[in-house]
Amino acid sequence: MALRADDLIDRRRLRRKLTFWRVAAIGIVALGVIALSTWFYGDDFTGSAVDHIAKVKIEGTITEDEELIKRLETIRQSSKVKGVILSIDSPGGTTVGGESIYEEVRKLAGDKPVVAEVGTLAASAGYMIASAADHIVARKTSIVGSIGVLIQYPDVSGLMDKLGVKLEEVKSSPLKASPSPFKPTNDDERAMVRKLILDSYDWFVGIVAERRKMTREQALALADGSIFTGRQGVANGLIDAVGGETEAVDWLATKGVDAKLKVVEWKNTERRGGFLFSKAMAQTIGSALGLPAYSGDVIHELGADRLFLDGLVSVWHP
């Protein structure tokens, strides 16, 4: 019996050792696969170990985006990045969000040539960011423009009357917390808001005139909220050429960037928004709705993120 007990103990020890080495082997293989993937498929990861052209996608509703700004700064500091393509497909967003990204792109353009490649749409704050690039290309049927600023707020006072709900408030001054969705806006409140709008609009028109080498009068003529196709954009001086990535790379070549360099997308590697707004959650909902796996962020695709914009916005359709 003693021998059999010893045999059992030895077998258990052997199993533990085998389990340990199996786990270790799996870990080593996994690390090897990651290393090989990084080496052979650098475009699936942030950055690259060889000289390349960095591509950054700016899509959807624009808000203040610390991750994107950090990514652009990392690209600026990378000695391996020889040129940058901003791939823009956005209806706009908050004015502050557009301003912060615009300033970061201008900083980046101080060290590396930057070209904007417009997809379906670069309107309002989307066009603001595109104008920060040194060169803009867009498809013939792309939409650009919608230069302007707005602020919108609901008036639910009629609904409150129907429900028998009254608002009582004590304010330090008449314009405090105005405009309010709980009562109609008066002339003084509208005048205050208009001053905000016109000040930001003046700044927006100024950067368009500066970046597109127009007179202020020329910029103002285009800044009435109108949108333009890519072909119209070329004619009006809002973009430089019709085309896509190939034309963007060709322009970079005129700035000394080797056109044979690989275009590598620098992606957002941070998880943002928690599970409710995560890509995994979006794909789960999409599958339940019968949407394809590549349908992306459901909330983003439906445009519901625009419902939560606050403050001054530069957006084609809020």
Short structural summary:
The chain is an alpha/beta fold. The protein contains 11 helices and 10 strands. The chain has helices at 2-40, 66-77, 95-109, 125-130, 157-163, 187-211, 216-222, 230-236, 245-254, 279-288, 298-301; strands spanning 52-59, 81-90, 92-94, 114-123, 135-138, 143-145, 227-229, 241-242, 263-265, 313-315.
Structural class: alpha/beta
Helix content: 40-55%
Main sheet record: 8 strands, mixed
Mean pLDDT: 82
Number of domains: 1
Give me the CATH fold name: 2-enoyl-CoA Hydratase, Chain A, domain 1
Roughly how many Å is the radius of gyration?
A: 27 Å
Give the low-pLDDT segments: 38-45, 272-281, 294-305
Domain Peptidase S49: 110-254
Family: Belongs to the peptidase S49 family.
Keywords: Hydrolase, Membrane, Protease, Serine protease, Transmembrane, Transmembrane helix
EC number: 3.4.21.-
Name the features.
single chain, serine-type peptidase activity, S49_SppA_C, 318 residues, Protease-4, flat, two-stranded antiparallel sheet, 11 helices, serine protease, eight-stranded mixed sheet, 2-enoyl-CoA Hydratase, Chain A, domain 1
Question: Can you describe what's shown?
Answer:
The protein has about 325 residues and is α/β, with parallel strands linked by helices. It has a single domain (about 45-155, about 175-315), classed as 2-enoyl-CoA Hydratase, Chain A, domain 1 (Alpha-Beta Complex), CATH 3.90.226.10. The chain has eleven helices and ten strands. The protein has helices at about 1-40, 65-75, 95-110, 125-130, 155-165, 185-210, 215-220, 230-235, 245-255, 280-290, 300; strands at about 50-60, 80-90, 90-95, 115-125, 135-140, 145, 225-230, 240, 265, 315. Strands 1, 2, 4, 5, 6, 7, 8 and 9 form an eight-stranded mixed beta sheet that branches. Helix 2 (about 65-75) packs parallel to helix 3 and helix 6 (about 185-210) crosses helix 7. The longest helix has about 40 residues, at about 1-40. The chain is flat, with a radius of gyration of 27 Å.
